[in-house]
Amino acid sequence: MVSMARIFMGIGACALLIMVLAGGAMAQNGPPKKVSCESKEYPKCYDLVHVCPKYCRDSCEVDCVTCKPVCKCDQPGAVCRDPRFIGGDGIMFYFHGKKDRDFCLLSDSNLHINAHFIGKRNPAMKRDFTWVQSIAILFDNHRLFVGAQKTATWDEAVDRLALTFDGEPIFLPQGKGAQWQSTVLPSVSITRSHDTNGVIVEVDGNFRITTTVVPITKEESRVHGYDVTDEDCMAHLNLGFKFYSLTGDVTGVLGQTYGKNYISRVNMGVAMPVMGGDREFAVTSLFAADCEVSRFNGIGASSGNAEFASLSCGSGIGGRGVVCER
Fold first, then answer.
1. Tell me: the pLDDT tens digits for 193-213?
2. Is residue 45 a contact partner of residue 69, using CB atoms and an 8 Å limit?
3. Distance CA 38, CA 49 (A)
4. Alpha-carbon Rg of the chain, whole angstroms?
5. Which of 71, 83, 197, 234 could, after both became Cys, cross-link 56 (CB 3.0–4.6 A)?
6. Strand bridging mode 179-181 / 188-192
7. How far is 49 from 157, CA to CA, in rounded Å?
8. Best-predicted range by mean pLDDT (15-29, 132-146, 264-278)
9. How far, in Å, CA of 169 to CA of 163, rounded?
10. Where does the pLDDT of residue 43 fall: very low under 50, low under 70, confident under 90, or very high at 90 and above?
11. How far apart are the C-alpha atoms of 65 and 32, rounded to whole Å?
């Protein structure tokens, strides 16, 4: 059992690290975004406009209880940036994986989530710079895909999200609040959290995932040595996970931190605590549930895996829409 002191230490350490990086590394193009409390249960805060902190202008929301803006990347269940995780135990760590590879973020009896990593190789380092470009979500015998389309020059007004459900593209109108709901399974819905590039993916009683497509800015590239070119701004996903029906046996890079007997194995005494496990969390493809630690046996999982394991999803012609191929 992780002590509360360690949890708060982890949260404090990650917040401090983010603030240190904020002095230019996390600056984005344009003014910070504005957000508001959207719950009428908090009348004193409802609809009041707040400015997001500069260090998390793309992943900010209002805590309606305190009526203050908070960074979603600092909350338990967050997966952001170079992938920086906040575990279910509140402790921050990094998992770098490898570029152009797929890794299991969570595996439970009826929920399995993989991530595809993109990246850049720095010859001066022993690892790749990596970011989560897309995720595949397996539950029952269904498959959801959420991805950031490859982008050269970033424009926030242009939507770069790619979405599919059971291999069929989802075309979601632009505009905050626009919603898609599955006619096959009404418990599955996707709602825009921003006019473009931000959605909330939810399956009632199972999970809720907030995701935002963000680029690597020239300033970030300069400060960290990412060497991002004008041909590709390395658009990727900032993610926030909430789970409603996990078992105590859950595993995966993020999932293990929600396990009943989990004890963090990262070294909290360093500035960048890293979680290892590239081999045990690797999967053979984005829709495969074959990592060494897999727990997934959802309804129809065996036939579903055979049908979807080789499915590959990416941008359509001209970068609009999404195409899935076997």
1. 989 999 999 999 999 999 999
2. no
3. 10
4. 19
5. 71
6. antiparallel
7. 21
8. 132-146
9. 6
10. very high
11. 22
Pull the structure tokens for residue 103: 């890794």
pLDDT of residue 31: 67
At 239-280, the pLDDT tens digits run 999 999 999 999 999 999 999 999 998 888 888 899 988 999
Q: Cα separations (Å) of 234 from 23, 227, 228?
A: 21, 10, 7
The pair of structure tokens assigned to 11 is 């949260």
Q: Is the dihedral of CA 179, 238, 89, 265 positive or negative?
A: positive
Backbone phi and psi for residue 10, each to the nearest 5 degrees, phi listed first: -65, -45
Confidence tier at 89 by pLDDT (50, 70, 90): very high
Closest-CA residue to 53 (of 38, 77, 70) = 70
Q: How confident is the model at residue 185 (pLDDT cuts 50, 70, 90)?
A: very high
* Cα–Cα nearest to 207, from 94, 110, 303, 281: 110
Question: What token pair was written down for 225?
Answer: 């040595």
Q: How far is 1 from 4, CA to CA, in rounded Å? A: 9
- 30: amino acid identity, one letter: G
* Contact between 155 and 172 (Cβ < 8 Å): no
Res. 299 pLDDT band, cuts 50 70 90: low
Please name which of 138, 191, 192 lies closest in space to residue 167, comparing C-alpha atoms: 138
Question: pTM for this one?
Answer: 0.81
Q: CA triplet 106, 111, 112: central angle to 5 degrees?
A: 45
Q: What are the counts of helices (DSSP H) followed by strands (DSSP E) for the chain? A: 4, 21
* Beta-carbon count within 10 A of 299 CB: 10
Residue 277 near residue 253, CB atoms below 8 Å = yes
DSSP codes of every residue in 191-254: EESSSSSEEEEEETTTEEEEEEEEPPPHHHHHHHT---BTTB---EEEEEEEESS--TT-BSTT
Q: Which of 316, 325, 27, 326 is nearest to 149 (CA)?
A: 316
* Other Cβ atoms within 10 Å of 315 Cβ, number: 17
Helices (H), 122-196: none
Q: Is the pLDDT of residue 16 over 70?
A: no
